[in-house]
Amino acid sequence: MQRLRRRSRSIRRGLIAASCALLGVARANGQEPPEPAGHAEGGSAANHWVVDSALSYYQEKGRIRVIEPIVNAVKDFQNGQIVNLQFVVDSLTGATPLGAVTSFLPQVWTNASKAAHSYTTAPGTLPVDPFYHDVRVAASGSWQLPLSRVLSWTVGAKASYELDFLSLTGSTSIARNFNEDNTTLSFGVYDEHDTIRPIGGVPLPGSDTSFALRERAGQQSRNDAGTLIGLTQVMNRHWLAQVNLSLDRASGYMNDPYKILSVVNVSGVTTGYLNERRPGQRTRASIYLDNRVGWQRQSVNLALRYFGDDWGVRSYTARIRYRWYTSDQSSYWQPSVRWYRQTAANFYRPWVPLSAVGDLTYESADSRLAAFHALTYGLQYSVDIGTPYVRPRWLTVRVQYYRQIIDSRIPGPGALASLNLYPGLTAIQAQVSYKF
Predict the structure, then answer these.
(1) Considering 47, 233, 372, 375, which has the largest number of Cβ atoms within 10 A of its Cβ?
(2) How buried is residue 199: exposed, middle or buried, by Cβ count under 10 Å (0-12/13-18/19+)?
(3) Alpha helices, DSSP H only, in 63-125?
(4) CA-CA distance, 43 to 235, in Å (whole number)?
(5) How far apart are CA 113 and CA 55, in angstroms?
(6) pTM for this structure?
């Protein structure tokens, strides 16, 4: 049996994303405009490096544990140039779902790591690989160059490396200010190239895992290119609004090489396992709306996002954050709530009926492609331990709780009807960061 190394990044990244947002043109993938009415966490004095460092701990109940140090450094030059550098290391351990469905019988597995382990999943338990381990190292940088008083150009690059995965990305964007710098229009493009080298090789999509060893190839690749149009508007001295539209298209090897599906007969007995099979292309589009209102010692941020693709996935996100400063503005509290819901991909199925084997074009049991909804509750406390407005040094502690509930609850056949086939997911993240 194969080991699932490609993890559910969408959940973890959603929790960790707030740790180190890049400065520059705000983007639909989560970057945000600055706080209005002077409430930004200052410290970007010209010709000084501003360093934002963080250590994040993420734990899924009974599953993956992640320890992630992050260092982000920004230098704002007097001539208007801005250099941004970021370095991230992920250390992941724990248990990760295989994709197979829960059974009323024991299931025996052997993972595909260099030191192969055999293990057994108990009846009524979701099959997971308990020996999961991975390390990811990523580095990125961007350079913003003013072309005139109202026009700026930004170029960026990113590299991410894992034992079985390499990703290289290049991007460029241009931003133009109008209306006495109260309106900013931006346009950007990016291109990402991924190389996938699974341990043991790449399984043939849709093949029976019993014959995977003779149906493997060495490596596969994937390319993802996209564009973004953004508009940021200062409505008044207290209100800042933003809208971003993005479109991208990915092609190549889109499967998760470690994901499988169970083949189940009408009695609920698992008769075998298949490697998943997804379309070789995916087109995605999204719209992101962000409003920030600040007054005196308080500010509110409301963000909305809609996403859709040609796989049938539709998602809706709403997030609200409230920030309250102390009277001297040397510290603040920030509670937040995020709501998310998505529909299932057209080819998502938690298992494959024995009668349908060979008749399906695409199939995947990856829960990231299922219909589900989720809530994230967060609380942050930040205190300036430096010299306010001159050389601030922000120390931040953040805690977030995540709960996901699967909505794609197809009744199980036969004996599976009495089992919990959709256990959902809960996770907690704790993070300490220091900005100086």
Answers:
(1) 372
(2) middle
(3) none
(4) 25
(5) 28
(6) 0.86
